Amino acid sequence: MRIASALLKARVPQNENAVPFQEILPLRLKNQVSGKTDKGSDVACLQEMAVMFSCLKANEFDERLCPKEVSSFKKCYKVYIDKKASKKETSSKGILVPGKDLNYKQLNKVLKQFPNQTQDK
Fold first, then answer.
1. Would you state the pLDDT for residue 1?
2. Which domain holds residue 75?
3. 9 part of a folded domain
4. Relative to the CA of 92, which of 38, 58, 73, 84 has its CA 20 to 30 Å away?
């Protein structure tokens, strides 16, 4: 009986006028961002490294028996380093690439172009 009575009671939506909105902090972006979160963990070529280590373990860590896996890992790591260097170069020059992840310096540059208008009360 308790289940049936609980199913029959429908929850009524809360009245928006009964709970007014209180602005604690201003609802606008700041004109700059900090660079604290740009230093994340960067893992590259994890799959290739796992395959290489499993081959090395199976062959008692003799690199001569796993040339394909070692070369695959080295190639992947070289591509990763090249991409990282080109990304660093474009960010140091201040070049903004649309549709790509921007670092904090590039975001600050965009936010300077479109600053928030402050309203004094």
1. 55
2. 44-91
3. no
4. 73
| Eight-state DSSP code of residue 2 | H
Tokens of 17: 């006028």
Count of domains in the chain? 1
The model's pTM is: 0.57
Kindly give, in sequence order, each residue whose CB lies less than 8 Å from that of residue 66, ignoring residues fewer than 6 positions away: 52, 55, 56, 59
Q: Mean pLDDT over residues 85-97, rounded?
A: 79
The rounded distance, in Å, linking the Cα atoms of 86 and 88 is 5
In a domain, 75, yes or no: yes
| Residue 67 to residue 70: CA distance in whole angstroms | 5
39 assigned to some structural domain: no
Alpha carbon distance 2, 118 (integer Å): 56
Tokens linked to 106 = 């590039």
Least confident of 1-10, 30-39, 74-83: 1-10
Give per-residue pLDDT as tens, 26-46: 888 788 888 776 666 678 899
